[in-house]
Amino acid sequence: MSILIKDVLLDDEEETDIYIEGNQIKKIGQSLDVVAEKTIDGKGKFAIPPFINGHTHSAMTLLRGYADDMPLMEWLSEKIWPLETKMTEEDIYWGAKLACLEMIRSGITVFNDMYWHFHGTSRAVEEMGIRALVSAVFIDFFDKTKANEQIELNERLFEETKSYSNRITFCLGPHSIYTVSEESLRWVKNFSNRNDVFIHIHISETQNELKECIKRYRLRPIEYLKRIGFLSDKIIACHCVWLDQEEMEILKNYNIQCVFNPISNMKLSSGKIFPYPRLIERGIGIILGTDGPSSNNSLNMFETMKIASLLIKHDTKDPTSLPAKEVFNLATNKAFGINTGIEEGNLADIVLLELNRPELTPSHNVISNIVYSGNPSCVSTVICDGKILMEDGYIEGEDEIMERAKEQALSLIRR
Ligand SMILES: [Zn+2]
After folding, report:
1. Whether 25 and 112 share a structural domain
2. Separation of CA 245 and ligand 1 centre (Å)
3. Gap from CA of 143 to ligand 1 centroid (Å)
4. For the chain, what is the domain count?
5. DSSP readout, 319-361?
6. Full DSSP string of 72-107
7. Rg of the chain (C-alpha set)
8. Distance from the CA of 51 to the center of ligand 1, in angstroms?
9. 22 Cα: distance to centroid of ligand 1 (angstroms)
10. If you measure from the C-alpha of residue 344 to the centroid of ligand 1, how many angstroms do you get, rounded to a whole number?
11. DSSP per residue over 115-147, as a string?
12. How do strand 168-170 and strand 286-288 relate by DSSP bridges?
């Protein structure tokens, strides 16, 4: 399939054409002399690279609004974990489809997921046409039998992922240092090394996690992970709010990427603010994330960009910190080795924003408008891997997905 986007604005410059062939951006230029199977009128629209959601638990859409305003451990152990044990692959499938729907509407075509029933999520992503790093939640609660089950499961899932399209990437998902044993963490690291796969983990999210780690190992979380040989540049470290200077140096030395989830950190009262200026001055890679839709409670990257910027400005007492362009780049920079970005030769993942909207008028600075006053309603068309997933706000099958996800969520609560 070939697509020609005519007369679209790119980088605030003059109107340009973008020609897509297969799953690649073939040509960018003014008045391109090409014939395509499908032409999109880009007049009045602004083309941006897709947003990348660095951390979520997509099928938690089913638990959105089910248990809010609670402390993290109480929320997990009393509300979330008991229901998760009752979830079926069918629940996860519809929950993840709903999440993909919401993410497409928010201009996201890549997300990093950690949840139960791996194939439920993978099938949903496959059908919805976007990209994901999918990991099963690896939790052994320091129990040998559970650890062996998890290892077997992950070995099998790694092989089974090969039957999906290359929009789906297998990823390891050890939940955290307080739910996974040292032996299992070592196995995860070795498996990642042998097979070149990413490791998605929660690190230093709460003060309690830090205190327990110091009590148990006499080390801070990152120091502990370094001591057991767990660290590498394959780690996607989510949260990282309770860090000291020494730990930041370690993150830098291992070239570890951190995911900043401003909304969930504030909602769950993590008690500390992501040390953005100190990480960025060390050149540490930072990706933005929403976290799961029951600790956020949306999958909205516009909101995430704005709140990230406001939170850092508030923390540093400096309104010039994390400006619009910088936070926009954090949300759209290529990540996880996926070749996004609007350039010839890159993957054909493109989001078209409708500029003719009250909240984006007037247009003194398009990027400032997107970050500080934009929202998912401004997303008009989404293309991923050379296929149109949403056109002028229309997504095929949307009503059925919402209906089925609602039914699954209600039946889960009654089980
Ligand atoms: Zn999380």
Report:
1. no
2. 23
3. 22
4. 2
5. TTSS-HHHHHHHHHS--TT---SSSTTSB--EEEEE--SGGG-
6. HHHIIIIIIHHHHTT--HHHHHHHHHHHHHHHHHTT
7. 21
8. 18
9. 34
10. 34
11. ES-HHHHHHHHHHHT-EEEEEE-B--TT-HHHH
12. unpaired
223-227, long-range: CB < 8 A, 24+ apart = 223/247, 223/250, 224/177, 225/177, 225/185, 226/250, 226/254
| Half-sphere exposure at residue 134, Cβ-oriented, CA atoms within 13 angstroms | 32
Ligand 1 center–CA 57 separation, angstroms: 6
For residues 243-254, one letter each, b for 16 or more C-beta atoms within 10 angstroms of the residue's C-beta and e for the rest, the string is beeebbebbeeb
Length of the chain counted residue by residue: 415
Q: What is the pTM of this model?
A: 0.97
User: Are 109 and 340 spatial neighbours (Cβ–Cβ below 8 Å)?
Assistant: yes
The answer to the question of residue 408 being in a domain is no
Tell me the two tokens of residue 328: 């926009």
| Largest Cα–Cα separation, the chain | 67
Determine the structural domain holding residue 145 and report its residue range. 51-332
Strand, coil or helix: 112 = strand
Strand, coil or helix: 288: strand
Q: Is residue 358 one of the residues assigned to a domain?
A: yes
Identity of the residue numbered 84: E
Residue located via tokens 């930041």 = 248
- Output the tens digit of pLDDT for each of the chain's 415 residues: 999 999 999 976 789 999 999 999 999 999 999 999 999 999 999 999 999 999 999 999 999 999 899 887 888 889 998 999 999 999 999 999 999 999 999 999 999 999 999 999 999 999 999 999 999 999 999 999 999 999 999 999 999 999 999 999 999 999 999 999 999 999 999 999 999 999 999 999 999 999 999 999 999 999 999 999 999 999 999 999 999 999 999 999 999 999 999 999 999 999 999 999 999 999 999 999 999 999 999 999 999 999 999 999 999 999 999 999 999 999 999 999 999 999 999 999 999 999 999 999 999 999 999 999 999 999 999 999 999 999 999 999 999 999 999 999 999 999 8
> Do both 257 and 177 map to the same domain?
yes
**290 CA to middle of ligand 1, Å?**
9
Would residue 146 count as lying in a domain? yes
**Does 410 reside within a domain?**
no
Question: In terms of domains, do 11 and 21 share one?
Answer: yes
CB distance 113 to 56 below 8 Å: yes
Nearest alpha carbon to residue 104 among 78, 123, 125, 130: 130
